[in-house]
Amino acid sequence: MSASGLGEVRRPSARGDQLLFLTDEQLRQGIELMFFAYRDFTSDPDRILEDYAYGRAHHRAIHFINRRPGVTVAGLLDILGVTKQSLNRVLRQLIEDGLVTQEVGARDRRQRHLHLTEAGRDLERRLSEPQRARVRRAYSEAGPEAVSGFRKVLEQMIDERVRKEVLGLVGGGRGPEGEGSGGA
C-alpha cells in the first residue's frame, strides 16, 4: 500500500494482468455496503425466525438440508463450519419441532442423514422467498455483466483453500453440482 492510500489488485484479463487501483475509501465503502446488504438480506427471514425462537444458525441448517436432502451430520458440519455442539443444539430443536428428520445410514449406522419434513420445506420456502426476490430484483437492476462480476468478487472472497469445494457445492456451471451427501 502506498502513502497515497492506493492499493494494487491484480486482475486477469484477455490482454494479460491489469492493475486495478483502489483507494482505502473505495475499499471501506465496499465493506460497508456488504454490511448493509447483509443486514437487509437477512431482515425478512429474521422476522419469520423470531416466531419460532430460532436464529440464523437454524436458517442456515434448514437451507443446506433442503439443498442436499440426506446430507449427513458430518457433511453439514463441514458445510457450515460450526462446532458439533452448536449444530447439535440447532438440530435437536429442529427435530423436536418436527422440521427435520434423522435417518440412520444404510451402510454406516453411525451416520445420520438429515431430511426436511413437509413443515420444514414449507418454512424453508417462507425464509428463502424474500431473499430470492431481493437478489432477483438486484440482479435484474444491475444487469448480466454486473451479476457475473459480482459472482467473481464473491468467489474470490472465499478462502482459497476451500474455494474449489465451495464452488462445487454451489454449482452453477463451475464444477460439480454438489448434490448428494454433502461430502460425508
Characteristic key phrases:
alpha+beta; 184 residues; 4 strands; Arc Repressor Mutant, subunit A; two-stranded antiparallel ribbon; 7 helices
Range of helix content: 55-70%
CATH topology of the domain at 55-170: Arc Repressor Mutant, subunit A
- Kindly report the spatial arrangement of strands forming the biggest sheet: 1-2
Low-confidence runs of at least 5 consecutive residues: 173-184
Q: What integer value in Å does the Rg equal?
A: 20 Å
What does this structure look like?
The chain is built from seven helices and four strands; from the N terminus they run ββααααββααα. It is of the alpha+beta class. Helix 1 runs antiparallel to helix 5 and helix 2 crosses helix 5 (118-142). The longest helix is centred in the N-terminal third of the chain and has 27 residues, at 24-50. It is globular and about 55 Å long. The N and C termini lie far apart (42 Å). The model is unreliable at 173-184 (pLDDT under 50).
